[in-house]
Amino acid sequence: MENQSQKNQSSQEKSLPALHIRDLTVAYQRKPVLWDVDLDVPAGVVAGIVGPNGAGKSTLIKAILNLVNHTTGKVEIFGKPYRLQRQLVGYVPQRESVDWDYPINAVELVAMGLYRQIGWFRPVGSKHRELALKALEEVGMADYAHRQISRLSGGQQQRIFLARALVQNAQVYFMDEPFAGVDAATEKAIMAILQRLREQGKTVFVVHHDLETVREYFDYLIMLNMRVVAAGAVQSVFTPENLRRTYGGRLTLLDRAVDAMGRRL
Amino acid sequence: MWLGNYDSSQVLHRLIRVLTLGDYNTRVVMFGTVMLGLAGGVVGVFLLLRKRSLLADAVGHAALPGVAATFIILMQLGGNPRSLPLLMLGALVSGLLGMGCVLFITRTTRLTQDAALGIILSVFFGFGIVLLGIIQRMRGAPAAGLNSFIYGRTASMLLSDAVLIGTAALVIIGLTLLLFKEFRLFTFDSPFAAGDGWPVTFLDALLMALAVGVTIIGLQAVGIILIIAILVIPPAAARFWTNKLGLLVFLSAMFGALGSYLGTSISAILPRMPAGAAIVVSQGAFFLVSLLFGSERGLIQELIARNRQKRKILRQNLLRALYEFEEQYGTGNIGANQEGQWDYLNDARQWQRGSLYRGLKSLKKQGRVLFTPRGYWKLTPSGRSEAARVTRNHRLWEVYLLEFAAIAPAHVDQGADQIEHVLGDEMVAELEKLLPRFGTPLPESFHPLGSLEEKP
């Protein structure tokens, strides 16, 4: 019975876009950083989000997750508003966003991905610790489970962030620059995880900087520069023309308009 | 004498009575302040991790006008103007108002939080002092008790006050421990917590409310100026002893409670010693001891570790110098007398005589080198294999710097020196992969080594 309803749900999810955005505009202190974003991303793709600095890549993710207020627009995950679908969403914030001197070890950090499942007030049990250890194993960090996070390298820190997202067991993942400044072993580990998530039919969004690896890592691409320049299958949108429109030539008129709005304050 | 009118046997007698809680009064006060110390230690840990300690300080200072205004109102209404629960209520209202002002200014203007804190803290406190001035000019006002809210006074603590403080402290500790997991999550990574569906704003507000709670119940005993200390010092001291959050909370609570116990005892023994100041100074002593002797990055621990590393580097450099000496002149007696070798080693690194000798002695103790009857130093077999390893790491690193970091050859030797001592096995393996042509045998040094020849 329960299996039946799960099957129904998953077949229904397949037909719906994993992410549906209409008219999303985000402004920091009334200064717009994202204009009129419309997106429909199908389920089961690994999607790169690329664009120059200040293009609003992280902001897009934060707006979807409701971490910044958006001025207008609606965001839907599998056809329902985000706030009803939170349990389907996993998140890997930028590594620099936390204090790595915090008194906690790797396995405890990974277990944070299970807190939602554990629920209010209840402590982390041995069952959950095992799940966290398994996730650490998947990212090749099993040997470091009880190491203080301050004593891990940057790449290792990134990997336990990923492990924390893996235990969330989400359908849609948002990863903010997981490849930034990591070593070769970590890069390989992340690629393997993306591959496996794709095989499991999950949808993954990855903010990314390195254009050279776009074709290798992603099958869907969102090109962003304060607005969506292009979005679609990598083969069709990753073109010199779109790259020029994303990176080349600043949008002088848009810049000036934004400046003027900022000054009016 | 500074102890007042007691002679020494009286002081001792009194000391014992205080420390064993012989007096009813001491028992009451001790109960109140120790509970306060426990609560401050527990909540303070999360406040420190959330980096919000100064906000709690602002709340403490902003409480003064509330206390004074409540006093005036109670007098006008003919109530008891020293009723602690009502004065605390007034403190709470104006403290929260102050915190609200800080948040309002930070969010709506370009001022940063530190400026907003400075403004609100001083303006509210100043306003409170103005109100105290007015009270002193009022007829028949028993204003003496009010000054205790600034500097802290425990002598006037009644049993009902202590029970109130103790109950509130228990509630605060209980809530914090109940929400241990949630507080850990949002103080570490609030964007992730929010994305995961936790009400981060609510948790943040709740943590602040608990900190405000400690501030308010501690106002009378510790005073407005120093109240922040019982939230900050114990967790900061405990941080020098552990990296485990659970243990950190426990230790912090213990430091808080012990500081209260000591401080209250001191103030009970010494006449006119304000309890708040004594508590804070006692906690400060714990902090100082932790800072110096703490097992996690305490200063002395760090110093020892740094020294050990320095000695290890000295030994490794010496091993390499000896290895390179033997590379050039062989291991037998090739006529190199003690003088010649000594000069060679000295030239290699410009060691001070003392450290060169110390290094050789410690290598000898480890069995890495021996002093031959012919009067020169020689590597033992174990010393040679260790020296080969060290020299190899050094040269691999030199080649890496040359090939991948484009550093001028003249600088390479120095550059390699800094790093080679910290290369782990993992990094050496990676170097080997990057530089396959330097496989197993030792690469030759590509800059001239020192020599026995006379220099022009």
Overall number of structural domains of chain A: 1
Helix content of chain A: 25-40%
Instruction: Write down the CATH class of chain A.
Output: Alpha Beta
Percentage of β-strand residues of chain A: 15-25%
Runs of chain A in which pLDDT lies below 50 for 5 or more consecutive residues are 1-9
**CATH architectural arrangement of the largest domain in chain B:** Orthogonal Bundle
What's the CATH first level of the largest domain in chain B?
Mainly Alpha
Radius of gyration of chain B: 33 Å
Instruction: Give the strand content of chain B.
Output: under 5%
Order of strands in the sheet with most strands of chain B:
1-2
Let me know the number of strands of chain B: 2
Strand-pairing-aware structural class of chain A: alpha/beta
Terminal Cα span of chain A: 58 Å
Count of helices of chain A? 11
Architecture (CATH level 2) name of chain A: 3-Layer(aba) Sandwich
3D structure, described in words:
The complex is a heterodimer of chains A (265) and B (456). In chain A, helix 5 packs across helix 6 and helix 6 (154-167) runs parallel beside helix 7. In chain A, the strands form two sheets. A six-stranded mixed beta sheet of chain A has the order 6-7-8-3-9-10, sandwiched between helices. Chain A has a single domain (17-263), classed as Rossmann fold, CATH 3.40.50. Chain A is globular and about 55 Å long. Chain A contains eleven helices and ten strands. By secondary structure, chain A is of the alpha/beta class. Chain B has 456 residues and is mainly α. Chain B has two domains: 8-295, ABC transporter involved in vitamin B12 uptake, BtuC, CATH 1.10.3470.10; 303-438, Arc Repressor Mutant, subunit A (Orthogonal Bundle). In chain B, 73% of the residues lie in helices and 1% in strands. Chain B has 20 helices and two strands. Chain B has helices spanning 8-19, 24-49, 53-62, 64-76, 84-108, 113-137, 148-151, 159-178, 180-188, 190-195, 200-222, 227-238, 245-269, 275-293, 299-329, 338-349, 353-365, 381-404, 409-420, 425-434, and strands at residues 369-371, 377-379. Chain B has a two-stranded antiparallel sheet. In chain B, strand 1 (369-371) and strand 2 (377-379) form a beta hairpin. Chain B is elongated and about 105 Å long. The model of chain B has no long low-confidence stretch (mean pLDDT 85). Classes of the chains: A alpha/beta (265), B mainly alpha (456). At the A-B interface, helix 4 of A face helix 9 and helix 10 of B.
